[in-house]
Amino acid sequence: MHLLAELNILELPPTKQNCDIREALCRACGITVSITMFTSAISQKLADRAGFKDLYAIDYADLEKINPIFRYPGIQEHTKSIRCMYIIYK
To answer: Do 43 and 84 touch, CB atoms closer than 8 A?
Structure first.
């Protein structure tokens, strides 16, 4: 995980090209699963298209109820939830 973070792979939007790079890097390192938190509706839609599946999702409103520190003013105007998503490289 640190290797991917150091190379900023985790910060790239999940476009086809970036997912190909991520997959190649994971395969080269013997990593078979990639898990990422997608925080915006746009990145979530791109992740869906790239083949990522939901591991867990929580609405921002519910997240704020759990702990007010997780209050993100205005986020719900464009994104309902935060989604933890994964992809398996076979």
So the answer is: no
CATH number for 65: 3.40.630.30
As for how many domains the chain has, the answer is 1
* Side chain identity, residue 35: I
Domain residue limits at 28: 2-88
32 CB-side CA count, 13 A? 1
Instruction: List, in sequence order, every residue forming a beta bridge with 59; answer none if it has no partner.
Output: 81
Q: What is the pTM of this model?
A: 0.77
Q: Would you state the torsion angle of the CA atoms of residues 37, 57, 39, 89, taken in this order, to the nearest 10 degrees?
A: 40
Question: Over the stretch 7-52, which tens digit does the pLDDT of each residue have?
Answer: 545 556 677 777 788 888 888 989 899 888 999 999 999 999 989 9
Q: Is 66 helix (H, G, I), strand (E, B) or coil?
A: helix
